[in-house]
Amino acid sequence: MDDLIDFDRAHVWHPYAPMDSPATPLLVASAAGNRLTLADGREPIDAMSSWWAAIHGYRHPRLDAALHRQADSMSHVMFGGLTHEPAIELARRLLDLAPAGLDKVFFADSGSVSVEVALKMALQLQRGNGHPGRTQLLTLRGGYHGDTFGAMSVCDPVGGMHQMFTDVLAEQVFLPRPPAGFDADLEPWVAEAQAVVDALDDTVAAVIVEPVLQGAGGMRVYPPAVLRWLRDQCDAHGWLLILDEIATGFARTGEMFGADHAGISPDIMCVGKALTGGYLTLAAVLCTADVAAGIDASESGALMHGPTYMANPLACAVAAASLDVLTESDWRRDIARINTALATGLAPARELGGVADVRTLGAVGVIQLDHPIEVAAASAVALEHGVWIRPFRDLIYTMPPYISTDEDLATITGALVAAARRPR
């Protein structure tokens, strides 16, 4: 075990960490249900769903069976000029679940790549519709959409993770941060946002936002009415509305998609993360027939993107099985149960010094501190309580697997409160 860790530390990069990191990663030997089995024998609950993806936990029998079944016929085949049943069936399931009007599906490699594809769709449509000067995106401060260049350009340029790249990214237009909380007063924000919109030239192609929950930008919940206002603006100005549902999709917020809280439909929607239940990397971009027609009318005559592993059969097969498991469950009741347990279990954190806010939405629970977190120290405290977490910035949070029992959730919330209680 020591040899493996030593090699890892000497040669393997980890996300958002220096190569010469003082932190030693934990070696995972296996995983089942909502628990990781570490090489030293500890079995913590994974309160992160492996970065919000493993909603059914690990080694789910139906997902395992789908993967094995597909591997017995073919693991991969190019999607250029060919097609296959797993992709067709997954597209069918996605369109059945999606907000009304979404009619076409483009399969991508990852969430960040799906955002790149969505931005290309918007730009190509505007060219196809005779507006080649519409090359900018309008978005919200506080947002996060991925680590590739197009996606970085629509992340928060001040408080986000990509400030060092500002000078080389496409220049986009940012609306103020939306007000915090589902029931927040919208009028002051609308006045500020309207002033930004009124000052725009005819250069905007689309609006892109994470609906109702800004994820890696700060786990901020905002009113669904913001989405309705943005939908109205897009309709009035000829912009497309792109919803990044990579983190919010598949019931995480209490509705199947974040858009459902507002009762709206986007023109383009990105999904990923939980799409395959955490088994394989896969994302999808859904759009309306009008968007597809506009793209076909552009000078290229086709959407100019085509990943090598587009619609990988293994990923599509396990994704279809994951959606079946979700839709055949009483997911709305399960998410409400999880939300109640999170709200109850995290409530004691409100009384702790250094805690700025405690909030929940669906199967998301957040303790926000008034100071930056020592990530390794907070994670170690949670691990002592039998829970794996990965805090960031000033946030100690959980997005647990949907299979988590009430006892599991009590353990998770207890660990988060203990991590928040740790003195600076």
UniProtKB/TrEMBL annotation:
One GO CC term, this protein: cytoplasm
Cellular compartment(s): Cytoplasm
Catalytic activity line of the entry: (8S)-8-amino-7-oxononanoate + S-adenosyl-L-methionine = S-adenosyl-4-methylsulfanyl-2-oxobutanoate + (7R,8S)-7,8-diammoniononanoate
Required co-factors: pyridoxal 5'-phosphate
Swiss-Prot/TrEMBL keywords: Aminotransferase, Biotin biosynthesis, Cytoplasm, Pyridoxal phosphate, S-adenosyl-L-methionine, Transferase
Keyword S-adenosyl-L-methionine tagged: yes
EC supergroup of this enzyme: transferase
PANTHER family xref list: ADENOSYLMETHIONINE-8-AMINO-7-OXONONANOATE AMINOTRANSFERASE
Residues given in the record as pyridoxal 5'-phosphate binding sites: G111, S112, D244, P307, T308
Modified residues (N6-(pyridoxal phosphate)lysine): K273
Residues involved in substrate binding: W51, Y144, K273, G306, R390
Marked site (Participates in the substrate recognition with KAPA and in a stacking interaction with the adenine ring of SAM) residue numbers: Y16
UniProt-recorded name of the protein: Adenosylmethionine-8-amino-7-oxononanoate aminotransferase
Superkingdom of source: Bacteria
NCBIfam families the record matches: bioA, PRK05964.1
An annotated GO BP: biotin biosynthetic process
Protein species of origin: Aeromicrobium ginsengisoli
Keyword Transferase tagged: yes
GO MF assignments: adenosylmethionine-8-amino-7-oxononanoate transaminase activity; pyridoxal phosphate binding
Main subcellular localisation: cytoplasm
Gene: bioA
Recorded family membership: Belongs to the class-III pyridoxal-phosphate-dependent aminotransferase family. BioA subfamily.
Pathway where this protein functions: Cofactor biosynthesis; biotin biosynthesis; 7,8-diaminononanoate from 8-amino-7-oxononanoate (SAM route): step 1/1
EC numbers, comma separated: 2.6.1.62
